[in-house]
Amino acid sequence: MFAAGYLAYLKAPGSYASISVETMAKLLEANESIIVDSRPKKPTFDKGHIPSSISIPDADFEKLKGKLPVDQNTILVFYCGGYT
Question: pLDDT tens-digit profile of 49-69?
Fold first, then answer.
């Protein structure tokens, strides 16, 4: 979560609303990022997810945020099921 809100997030250096598949592939290949699946674990994440991604559902973020790396320079890429 970005405490200042989504619009401030978009203005922050290095923040993007979306990235291309090619960019994500490069980040994964270089082992420079962590993918966070923010969809519900059961059943959505369990039915299928991007290999190597970690499950931190939106509803459980506060409880599970300890799964994130301590190094704040690590690139985090979150994905979800889209707007509902």
Answer: 988 899 999 899 999 999 999
